[in-house]
Specification:
Radius of gyration: 20 Å
Strand content: 25-35%
Strand order of the largest sheet: 3-2-4-5-6
Order of helices and strands: EEHEHEHEHEHEE
Number of helices: 5
Helix content: 25-40%
Structural class: alpha/beta
Number of strands: 8
Distance between the termini: 12 Å
Oligomer: single chain
């Protein structure tokens, strides 16, 4: 690369809206979680895009890695959360999985699919906020940083993680 001078700017990557999937067969719990997301947005000013699914089969139809976080009920009628998580992991290593369950023993099984955490039913806003604060911290670490280097004929934008030696 032919640079015009030593001037370089480091910039943060464009922050995208955090995408959340809620996979829960109980409509009331789905609505409660979606409401918690809205309340969290009002409280912390962090915008989210929420997509709701009634069961594991529904999210797996044409699944592609697009979500940052999936809140996943463990016990669902058609396809349980553990099986759904295993299938999601085959397609998406990066999504953060948070199980929703009324039985704490499922938390241990969550390690097999690299689940981040779990929330016990009945859901509390306090527990939800704790998980979301942790998730925001993790997602912030994933944010890319770029180095803008002036070069002959313009500038080159480089991902800092791609630079090994200067």
């Amino acid at each position: 690369m032919d640079c015009a001078g030593p001037q370089c700017d480091v910039e943060k990557g464009e922050q995208q809206m955090t995408r959340i999937a809620i996979v829960e067969d109980e409509a009331a719990v789905r609505e409660q979680l979606a409401g918690y997301v809205q309340r969290y947005t009002r409280q912390y000013g962090t915008p989210f895009e929420v997509t709701e699914f009634a069961d594991g089969m529904e999210i797996l139809e044409d699944y592609r890695p697009q979500f940052d976080i999936i809140f996943l009920d463990v016990e669902m009628k058609r396809l349980n959360g553990m099986e759904t998580a295993q299938r999601i992991r085959e397609l998406d290593d990066d999504v953060l999985l948070i199980f929703i369950t009324n039985m704490a023993q499922y938390a241990i099984k969550g390690y097999a699919v690299q689940a981040l955490d779990y929330i016990l039913k009945p859901l509390s806003y306090y527990a939800f906020c704790q998980r979301m604060n942790h998730v925001r911290e993790l997602l912030g670490r994933r944010q890319k940083h770029f180095l803008t280097v002036p070069c002959a004929g313009g500038v080159q934008k480089l991902d800092v993680s791609d630079i090994y030696y200067v």
